[in-house]
Amino acid sequence: MSSIPPSSSRARPSNGLFDSWLTLTPQGVLQAFGSAEPNELQLALQSLLRKELAVSKSEWSISTRHNAYLEQARDQQWVQVLSAPVNGPDTRLSDFIRHVIAPLSGERRAVLASESGFCLDRVGVEQDEAEALSAAAADFSEYARRQARRGWQGASRYVSFFDDPQLLLPSWSFVPIWVDGAGYWIIIGDEPLLNNLALVELVWGICLAGKRFLPDF
Description:
Elements: E1 21-24, H1 26-32, H2 40-46, E2 55-56, H3 57-60, H4 64-75, E3 79-82, H5 97-101, E4 110-114, E5 119-123, H6 127-149, E6 159-161, E7 172-179, E8 182-189, H7 197-209
Antiparallel strand pairs: 1-2, 1-3, 4-5, 4-8, 6-7, 7-8
């Protein structure tokens, strides 16, 4: 099995003697990119993954609103403070996706799908099953929109299916994210491991691409 390519290697520290740098934690990614219509706080958090290099605390705090959000973000463990900057992913998305979705599954079985149901990449899953899961994700997207129109936002979050009648461990989990208005589903087989830095790598890579996945394949 091929190893995960290094993507967040250390960069040269800034000349600022007393500066620090900020990046999102996995929980911060889920908070920041978990809504199709992000609020001001979510947009502020998203800005931390918009550049090829981690944003310095002094740069992010130039905005009064951002500075006000920092304490809350740290208390909620949405933001990690770094002593040196790190680089974002610098490889083609088509060469990168499977390496960062695999660690999100306890069995290294995962699919990344577009909101419209297109399978963008898969690991540990046969193509036919990946396409079926991607189509199911598109159905969930439509279901969530219908429920939102009725006033219930709960369907817009996470979905899990269980083979075990005791509901202890899901067989599949569906995690939605939105980047620049485009929706994606991370589909995870077996135990979901969402508190993994690979989630940050994945979303940072999408942000840096600045476009939908399809043209990159």
